[in-house]
Amino acid sequence: MLCVFAGASVAQAQLPDYNDFELQARANFSGAFNLPNSTFFTSATPSINDNADVAIKLINFPGTDRQAVWFGGAGAGKTVFTSADGAIITDVSLNDAGQIVTYQFLASPTAIIGIDGHAQTSTIRVAPGGFFGLIELGTPEINNAGVVGFRGKPGIGGQAFISDDAGSQAMHVNEVDTDPASPYSFLFSPSINNNRQIAGKARVGASGQFGNSQPDEIRLWNTDGSSVLIAVDADGDPMSPYSGFDNSVGVNDVGQVAFTASLVGGGRGVFLSDGATTLTIATTLQPEVNEIQFFSPDVNNSGLVVFRGRDGAGVETIFVGDGTDLTTVVQRGDIVPSDLGDARIDQHDTSLAFGGAPKINNNGDVAFQCGLTPPDDNQIEWGSGLYVAFASGVCPGPTDLSGDGAVGSADLAILLGNWGPCPSGQPCPADLDCDGAVGSSDLAILLGSWGSP
Question: Does 444 score more than 90 pLDDT?
Answer without folding.
Answer: yes
